[in-house]
Amino acid sequence: MPSPGKSKWAGVLRTPVGVSAATLLAAVLLLAVVAPLLWSDEAAAVDTGQILRGPSAEHWMGTDGLGRDVFHRVLVATGLSVGLALLATAIGVLTGLLLGAAPILLGARAGRVVSAMVNIAVAFPGLLLALFFAVVFGVGASGAVLAIGFALAPAFARLTQTLVAKVSGLDYVAAARIAGLGRVRLLARHVLPNVAEPLVVNATVAAGSALLAFAGLSFLGLGVQAPAYDWGRLLADGLAGLYIHPAAALAPGTAVVVAGLAFNLFGEAIAKGVGLRSAPVVFRRRDRDEPVAPAPAGEDRRSVLAVENLRVTFPGGTAPVRGVSFALRRGESVGIVGESGSGKTLTALAVAQLIEEPGEVTADRLEFRGQPLHELPDRTRQQLLGTSFAMVFQDPMTSFNPTQRIGRQLAEVSEQHHGLGRRQALDRAIDRLQAVRVPAAARRAKQFPHEFSGGMRQRAMIGMGMMGSPALIVADEPTTALDVTVQRQVLRLLQSVRAADDVAILLISHDITVVRRFCERVLVMYAGRIVEDLPAADLPARARHPYTRALLAAVPDMSTELERPLAVIPGRPVDPARVPVGCAFAARCPFADEQCRGADPPLVADREGRRVACWHADVTGGRPMMAEEVRVGE
Amino acid sequence: MTALLSGARTLRGLAGNTWLHFAARRLVRLLISVWVLVTAAFLMIHLIPGDPVRAALGLTASPELVAERRAALGHDEPLWLQYVHYLGGLFSGDAGTSVTSGLPVSRVIGDRLPATVELAGFAFVVAVVAVVVAVPLGVAMAVLTRGGRRRRTELSFTSTSVVLGAVPEFLLAVGLVYVFGVRLGWVPVAGRSGLVSYALPVLALAAGPAAVLARLLRVETLAVLHADYIRTARAKRLPGRIVYLRHALPNAVTATITVGGLLLGAMVAGTVLVENVFAWPGLGTTIVESILAKDYPLVQGIVLVYGTGVLLVNLAVDIALALLDPRSTIKES
Amino acid sequence: MSELRFEGVSVRYGGHRHGLTAVDTVDLTVPEGRVVGLVGESGSGKSTLARAAVGLIPLTGGRILLGGQSVRRRRSRPPLQMVFQDPSSSLDPRMTIGDSIAEAVPRGRPGRRAEVIRLLELVGLSGDRARLYPAQLSGGQCQRVALARALAGDPRVIIADEITSALDVSIQGAVLNLVRDVQRELGLSVLFISHDLAVVRYVSDFIAVMYLGRIVEYGPADQVLARPRHPYTRELLAAVSEPVDPGDLDPALRAVADTEPADPHHPPPGCRYHPRCPMGPAVLDDRDICREHEPVPQGHPHLAACHFAAER
Known about the structure:
The complex is a heterotrimer of chains A (about 625), B (about 325) and C (about 300). Chain A is of the alpha/beta class and about 625 residues long. Helix content of chain A is about 50%, strand content about 10%. Chain A folds into 3 domains: about 75-275, Orthogonal Bundle (MetI-like fold); about 280-405 and about 450-520, P-loop containing nucleotide triphosphate hydrolases (Rossmann fold), CATH 3.40.50; about 535-634, no CATH class. Chain A is elongated, with a radius of gyration of 34 Å. Chain B has about 325 residues and is an all-alpha fold. The radius of gyration of chain B is 24 Å and the shape is globular. The relative contact order of chain B is 0.13. Among the domains of chain C are: about 85-155, no CATH class; about 230-310, no CATH class. The radius of gyration of chain C is 21 Å and the shape is elongated. Chain C has helices at about 45-55, 95-105, 110-120, 140-150, 170-185, 195-205, 220-225, 230-240, 250-255, 290, and strands at about 5-15, 20-30, 35-40, 60-65, 70, 80-85, 155-160, 190-195, 205-210, 215-220, 305. In chain C, helix 2 (about 95-105) runs parallel beside helix 4 (about 140-150), helix 3 crosses helix 4 and helix 4 packs parallel to helix 5 (about 170-185). Chain C has about 300 residues and is α/β, with parallel strands linked by helices. Chains in contact: A-B, A-C. The interface between A and C is large, with 65 and 74 residues.
């Protein structure tokens, strides 16, 4: 098994840009080695009879002031141009690495001094630094190599610093430090290998910059000195005769651009290839249309949401949501529980009409307050959802626009959907912030999101949903990012909003204990389907699906028996790209048999309206799952 | 240095709000940077191996002349005293005397500076105009090509901007001279005479940064479109136009400005090369002449001017960022 | 002798003016062969305490003793190991899991390979997995490997920092079972840190509750859970066991219940919990003492830092 990095590098060569960049770069490097060996004599041959001639069959790019062949001179100059640029890059990269790794090598205090100096140096453009060092090291090729090398160093040091700091903060470095590894070994073993990829990419791009910078210095007369010549030198010589003989300037100029591009493009291609990790797309059989139990809620005016056979598909045949049906009535609180990849969040987004292309949502029925969402004209639908459908997202930190004041972000809802003016909309926003018990609402409305605590932000998010008069609040893991005491405050707030305004709430969570404590009804999702739908009060004793029961037994709560080991669900959650045939839970289920592996059980309702999708729901009865029934290991 | 820090502490003590904090912190950083710059410029000629005076006068100069010049330049004094004199001179506007012309450095710079400032100023304006044009272009590109749509549009946009961004300004300048000066004969190829002579140097300076910024803006906008707060904005059922202009754009621009600042700094330095292509009578041609002539006091002075210019650009960028993104006033300390 | 003792431990971050005392003169004992669960909200300083114990963060004050000896004194490999929260970052992605474990095996010990296999089997993975990379394992398996690596140093104390909170719920149980089994089998002392009271309850013999850098309650697990003496502990218990009910709260109690958590940069004077306390000065008029004097932890073996710990 090769290290996981290698296949990525090979992948770079499979993209068209990658191939052409690599070919171009290989050609430039080859030329740099070969040209000085093959054509040095031709390039140096003086022909006084042919001074400053234009392109001809004999001299493709004409001749220079001494009658030397420009084409050959450009070819031969590749060696010096590329070689010196690489040398300068090597100096820059090494110096940069040393400076950037200083915090690890020298310890925190000395490291801070070094990084402060680097931060100041990095503010100055490379060319200016190069000029500065050119003065110190003197005019000439070796001076220019040192100058450009040192000019590249600060930027590289800064990059190394950032990358090293990021990796040093990771737990495996901490673990290695605890294990007693020394600084140098820590750097060599754990840090450098894990920052190598971006460093290589940037070194490649830096080589391109060094090449251009070198051409610049030589052009100014500060780099390579006659009789030696590189592209910059040839360009400077050719520029004087631009009117009579443009090819002498244009040829070296073009060479610089092409070589510079080769390095840059190759760097970018690697960056793209290394960063790009496309998920494997596996073709999956199309689902047969299975009998779907109609949602138990009847037609009535209290219906808020009715969903039948909701599916979310992505190109390539993945279907993370596969035929979900449920209904919500006014004032009802329903929870959806499931592990990561169960499709619970996508179900919420699909209901909210927030699935982005290329995802596709289909449903036999998707009605909000009795209106079919798919058939409404855009404007009407946006108006309907904008005023009576509210969303609360998981991470209150990232769900507000960081550059706008909280009050504005609430107010724009009413400006858009209620036709309020700026002033009135802001007043309403303050009123709503008060309603969700944000203290000093008028003052806080003027603040930015980063000035709010997590719990307050989540309140403001709920307040945003209440700018209209919501009939439904969809809350996607609203408390996962919060501490338990704050979590309770936010859930309480949602509960009081529900009680006060008869709002239905759909709460999505991975935490079955939260859902159980908050909701009246619980939908359990597994691999894109609802596998069980039951009143929260029936948990844990009357749960019928083995997955629900396993989930309850695997997660400790405040009444878990202490002497017994926790139940273990073997295997891992299903990858939405590889949903197996038959019941998706069969591979992890202690009751699975041939029937389970052959056919997906339909979601069937009993007399009380509880639904379950399991061939053995009745056989296994309401007996809680015992740990002994469960295989050990994963 | 200590005085600076304690001054900063007083400022911090006075400052009640984040803006004052930010201003105080930024001022301290500027002062430290200027100090580092001045010190580096001073040390520059002392870092040169051998005797800079001997190097400047050449091997043929008599020892008496070298000694005399050394004394005149104060090179006989101990290093720290020279440093004190140098700082004192700078405070009173005296940056030394040019070795080649015998004129005060400040006067030479005063003569040449306006041409460079004009050039950089025009280029800056053009780049800003170009970016103002490029912003909608970049955002439109991001919106049109998100999720891998319109591959061909994306490819041509990306490749154009990559190539334009990768061609250094002096080569672009040569190309422009060839096309517009030599082939078409529309504009003069060198010198500073009349408005039309500005066209090529300004274009050569501004084109690269504008292209890079447009591309960067596209990448940033694409990243921002995936942010949670964009999903929130869509959940509020705001029209697409408001989602993009009010919620996506300001956040994409803040990231772009940071890089834009670096590019502007590079543009200040880029004038050196472009001036030399166009024989522009500014600081850029002067610094190269003085380096070749080993006229170190003059080099020192010009390095200071360029460095200060870059620091001012950085300051302007930080202020712009602070105005656009309230978080940046409290970030990093 | 593997009792872990924190004596007056303080950790301060940052400078004079903008600093933050994440851990403030904490006394805590993890008795030999026992599990102490440490709960508290984010920013309470529990992870800082853990990292300070293994030497990742320098102490500002106090000392940490292992079997009566200062941890600082021991030059190499303290018999104190740590397991981290995030399975995806706790193993070097470029090393096989076998190499990761081997690195932690004390050097110069013969039979490293056999040792790695023994450790893998100890945590319920087969020995032939040693050649796999972390990316080829599930989150739960990575946590098992991280535990194996911690055990490789022959530790007497393990510090487990939120080791299950990044795992899918169906996998948490397996990791908790494993921690319990290994602890009992090897007689390890464990400091088990979690924000989840139910998880802590399941594994711990003792429970310590941390609030804004201080230990506010400590005692045998059953006593702390059945008869909590600090109002913050009661609040934590209520948050995980009572149904969520808007209820009809007294306005003063409601205001307290909705109070924002205090900013760790500016801890309140007196008792740090007083602005949020349902039996403190924000609700009852005669409790100025809470604003003015910081309570001292009292009681044995079940101690609480509250002026009114005796009341409910």
